[in-house]
Specification:
This is Reverse transcriptase zinc-binding domain-containing protein. The protein is mostly helical and 102 residues long. It is 66% helix and 0% strand.
């Protein structure tokens, strides 16, 4: 499914793939805007275990635990429905549509 020709594994689909990385970057910026309106650079990205499984969440993220959990869930769901749209309907989502859906 990946346009880079890489086998679709869970890690690749939800973390390594370009569109997935775009979603995680966008979520990081949104988290920064929601928690620190004066600082719009966003937060540093968590690693794949932290983002996908909530494994050893960084201390900084724990302060906004419910918001991080919500955004993390939205990111994973967004990546999943974009993947299904491509597989079943042959529709590739643009970066703008990914952001709008988040």
């Amino acid at each position: 499914m990946c346009s880079a020709g890489v086998d679709e594994t869970i890690i690749h689909r939800f973390w390594d793939c370009g569109p997935s990385q775009h979603v995680w970057g966008f979520v990081s910026v949104q988290l920064g805007k929601l928690t620190q309106p004066d600082e719009s650079n966003g937060w540093p990205l968590a690693n794949w275990k932290q983002a996908l499984f909530g494994h050893r969440t960084p201390r900084r993220y724990r302060r906004v635990g419910k918001l991080w959990l919500l955004l993390r869930s939205i990111a994973i769901w967004n990546i999943w429905i974009a993947r299904n749209d491509k597989v079943f309907n042959q529709v590739t989502w643009s970066k703008e549509k990914m952001e709008q859906t988040v």
